[in-house]
Amino acid sequence: MELLRIIRETENEELTSVLQKIVCTYSDQLPPIALDICQHLATTFSQVLESDDTGDEKAITAMGLLSTMETLLAVMEEHPQVLAALHPIVLQVIGHVLQQNVFEFYEEAFGLVCDLTSKSISPDMWKLLEIIYELFQKNGAEYFVDMMPALHNYITVDTPAFLSNQNHVIAMYNMCKSVLTSNATEESECSAAKLLEVIILQCKGHIDDFIPSFVELALMRLTREVKTSELRTMCLQVVIAAIYYNPSLLLDILEKIPIPVPDSSITAHFIRQWLHDYDCFLGIHDRKLCIIGLCTLLSLGERKPTVLSELPDKIIPTMLMIFDGLKRAYAARASEGEEEESEDESEDLEDGLSSDEDDVDEMSPYLKNMQKMVQERGAEAGFEISASIQDADSDEDEDDDDDDDDDADEIDETALESYTTPLDDEENPNAVDEYILFQDVMNNLPNTDPTWYTMLTRNLNASERKNLQEVLVLANQKKETKRSKEIEKSGGYQFTQHQIPTTFSFTGQKQQ
Q1: Per residue in 136-195, pLDDT tens?
Q2: Is 320 in contact with 468 (CB distance < 8 Å)?
Q3: Record's superkingdom (predicted)?
Q4: Where are the domains of the chain?
Q5: What is the percent of the chain where pLDDT is above 90?
Q6: ∠197-198-201 over CA atoms, to 5°?
Q7: Where are the alpha helices (DSSP H) in 100-206?
Q8: Residue 382: pLDDT above 70?
Q9: For position 221, what pLDDT does the model report?
């Protein structure tokens, strides 16, 4: 508390860093005084903003205070009652920044909004959404990427409350439309398309009246210049999400959309573009959505688009290549999880052995002098010393950077992958598994539409047939894993080892 008093009196940015370290280090001891700390931080922040000082130090101090608030919220997550008491104080700070149009702190303010909506959304936070929308309409469009995490929370954390007021959906759509029809950056446009996709997947069955506007907005953006494959695929994913939402509704919408396409229908043009760009869908979510969308189209029977009958030889091979990318993405995620666990285990040891960066910097001249002295003494003794004393962190950092680059290439995903939907909830037993869905479609088609099934599989080469078999075997494994988890959750365990088929009939007939 004395430190807080000194910070308020001096507005020293270095002391805010000290306070942040204290909050992290002594989180278990803070609950009794967390409310007082937060109130001090809020008061000091207002004081800093209202001071006559316009220099960089003022901004740094204010950012440090906001950052310390965010840290305080994070460490109090295990104390719900304390956290609930902090929310009104932090909300006042957010309101100060947004309503007073303090642009330089918008990013930090939206970060705090994200924190306050990560577990639940209070009535006051729903009122704040109105303020955010009004701010966006006036001058906040350029901060849309900063808003995105909080907007995602408003849709996904309490979906019934989001749907309870149609204006919530309208506000989200209007913001996305403003971004996708203006001269916004493609990063903002990708976020806007992603937000439309999230709404469609999160609100399945509840927003039929909005689907036409969402789909038309995404397709209209594709009629203008698109510089990156990420934006193109994100717009395509809005339509693919609508296929999963309701394929019949989507096909009716596509027939009515007034977008001229030379020598083709909008439906045919979209599907051809989708299959052509299959390798632009990265990460797990995007590929998974592709598979689910194509499986949905394959199962439509007589209602399926005519263009599919013109591309039977391309559909299954394309899906197999997407599955191959999925397999690698899942393996990369698993590997990354194991590395994080290993890093967590070694952090305590490293913390005990390593010194601060400042100490290392101070030691560097000493190490160089030591090396020079050793080499000189060696020369006097008649032998040459070629070994050198180096700052170990420098080479390790370079190696770490290289490793990070390799990991980034291997994981093969975008930042938008973090905006999850019901499709990404692997803990939900009712979630759609793309492998199992594909297997069900391939098992059902020989009975429901044998001619269509034959068209899809007749020209597969030996390699494609082998890959298809591997996908179907993996689907069986996933089924057994899912079944075992369900049994375990119900209080029992499954010990029976079921034999996984190693052959698959491409004719739909049982093999003798």
Answers
A1: 998 778 899 999 999 999 999 999 999 999 999 999 999 999 999 998 999 999 999 999
A2: yes
A3: Eukaryota
A4: 1-46+61-100
A5: 63
A6: 85
A7: 106-116, 123-135, 144-156, 159-163, 166-180, 186-202
A8: no
A9: 95
> Residue holding tokens 């599919």?
308
Cβ proximity of 96 and 102 under 8 Å? yes
Instruction: Decide if 254 contacts 214 (C-beta within 8 A).
Output: no
In this structure, are residues 314 and 275 in contact, taking their beta carbons and an 8 Å threshold? yes
Is residue 218 within 8 A of residue 257, CB to CB? The reply is no
Round to whole Å and give the CA distance between 26 and 333.
32
Query: Both tokens of residue 441?
Result: 């479609």
Q: How many residues does the chain have?
A: 512
Instruction: Write the DSSP symbol of residue 299.
Output: T
pLDDT at 263: 65
The pair of structure tokens assigned to 43 is: 């008061």
Question: What are φ and ψ of residue 157, in 5° steps?
Answer: -75, -40
Nearest to 71 by CA among 101, 26, 32, 120: 26
Q: pLDDT tens-digit profile of 32-52?
A: 999 999 999 999 999 988 887
Cα 438 from Cα 288, distance rounded (Å):
11
Rounded to whole angstroms, the Cα distance separating 103 from 142 reads 11
Q: In whole angstroms, give the CA distance from residue 131 to residue 501.
A: 58
Residues 6+ apart with CB under 8 A from 468: 316, 320, 442, 460, 504
**Residue 285 CA: distances (Å) to CA of 78, 409, 490:** 30, 16, 29
Residue 11: left if φ>0, alpha if ψ -120 to 50, beta else—which one?
left
Cβ atoms of residues 86 and 34 within 8 Å: yes
- Residues 6+ away with beta carbon under 8 Å from 261: 268, 269
422 close to 201: Cβ distance less than 8 angstroms = yes
Rg (C-alpha) for the chain, rounded Å, is 28
Q: Looking at the predicted structure, is the pLDDT value of residue 362 above 50? A: no
Question: Does 91 or 511 have the greater pLDDT score?
Answer: 91
What is the distance in angstroms between the CA of the first residue and the CA of the last residue of the chain? Answer: 81
Residues 6+ apart with CB under 8 A from 69: 38, 41, 42, 90, 93, 112
Rounded to two decimals, the pTM is: 0.82
